[in-house]
Amino acid sequence: MLSLFAWVVPVFAAPAEGAWIGLREACEAGAGEACRIAAEELAELETGQMVSETVIDLYREACNSADAESCGWLAEAFRDGARVPASIEEAALFYEEACDAGQADACREIADLHRLGHLGEIDTAAAATWYLEGCDAGDPPSCTMAALSLEQGELGEADYGRAKELLARACEGEHGLGCSELAGRTKDQKKRVQLFVSGCELEESIACREAGRALWRGRGIERDRERASSFLATACHRFDAVACRELARSLRRQDRDGSVALVEQACKLGDEKACVLGERWTK
Predict the structure, then answer these.
(1) Could you give the percent of the chain with pLDDT greater than 70?
(2) Is 166 exposed, middle or buried (0-12, 13-18, 19+ CB in 10 A)?
(3) Higher-confidence position of 7 and 232
(4) Which of 71, 114, 181, 237 could covalently link to 63 via disulfide, CB atoms 3.0 to 4.6 Å apart?
(5) Is 223 contained in some domain?
(6) How many structural domains are present in the chain?
(7) Is 240 part of a structural domain of the chain?
């Protein structure tokens, strides 16, 4: 256990001496939260660019006592180089500790590090394993990523049934991408549109676009062009180039100038079809 005499003395205007001694005793007794509070108090008193080793040691003690918040603090600090020397390897270790201590989004963070190759070679199997851990711990975005990993066979044979179940969990947990991906795997058109609408309400621009396209076409559902235009406009405002082009087509007869502006916007956003369409409309 860390010897704490060094951080009892620098009480610059810190907590009352009795409270400070109480934190020390609780921390030495293995109370992770007490170690974290002491670390936070000391970090606030320190004015240097980097925190002292004492602060880091206190956070480490808290993390070792399964204080997930402290593990998360250390992970983010080492990842970003925020008042500690940057180290992606140290960050990964503390993300794992935070995940094990129940911080669900930390599981996703370590998964992302493996998926992006920040820890060496890209390791999709390790990423998928951690996404599943995060999903089981209650992190909806992890459920979405785990589902996509299972579909791609990153843990063996592709498992589309389980993947769909995980997408449902993600959507129920209000992850917009999860709703959108689930909609793309749903045959019932009414349910499909409902899922896209849910994804749109959760600020997933692709879901807004697909809800708009489905309502405009009316295949298997009642056509509603007013709602369709609203969804397309929402996606376009979120810089979805295809949505801007689709909205331009829908408004062509009633607002020629507006539709030209929309295809020009879509073209600037990188949609080649919109560029061709804009040239044709401005001749």
Answers:
(1) 93
(2) buried
(3) 232
(4) 71
(5) no
(6) 1
(7) no
> Which stretch of DSSP H or E encloses residue 20?
helix 17-28
Q: Which two tokens stand for residue 253?
A: 């007869």
Q: Give the confidence band of 15 by pLDDT, cuts at 50, 70, 90.
A: low
pLDDT score of 226: 93
pLDDT in tens, 174-201: 999 999 999 999 999 999 999 999 999 9
Residue 234: which of 263, 211, 264 has the closest Cα? 211
| Contact residues for 76 (Cβ-Cβ < 8 A; gap 6+) | 82, 91
- Contact of 267 with 280, CB cutoff 8 Å: no
> What letter represents residue 41's amino acid?
E
Q: Residue 109: inside a domain, yes or no?
A: no
Query: Rounded distance, CA 53 to CA 56, Å?
Result: 5
* Residue 131 pLDDT level (bands cut at 50, 70, 90): very high
Q: Six-digit token pair at 186?
A: 């749903």
pLDDT of residue 227: 95
b/e map 175-207, b = 16+ CB within 10 Å:
bbbbbbbbbeebeeeeebbbbbbbbbebebbbb
Question: CATH code at 26?
Answer: 1.25.40.10
- Would you say 243 and 205 are in contact if contact means Cβ atoms under 8 Å apart? yes
Calpha distance 125→146 (Å, rounded): 10
What global pTM score does this model have? 0.85
